[in-house]
Amino acid sequence: MNKKSNTAAVAAYITWIGFIIALVIRDKTDPFTTQHINQALIINILSVIGGALAILPFVGGIISGIVNFVVLICWAIGVFRAVTWSTEPLPVIGELRIIN
Using 50, 70 and 90 to split pLDDT, how confident is the model at 1? Predict the structure, then answer.
């Protein structure tokens, strides 16, 4: 792990643009960066789903609020763990893998 790994891991959590930048600059052999990019992708996808749920009448706003709250908590924990070089997976979504 090096400074570039840490930069990519943190950048992955900062919007979709940061995620794409992190995906491009990452070291594919570094499990630290891959883990954080993977978690950031899942958080971004959940954020989009939460926003889409808001258009549902009645319960959509409540469900969207819950999903977005979970996303916010996971995002904050993810950024903190990336900054502190932690490889501990996030609760609930940490074991999901989309990018290898």
Answer: low
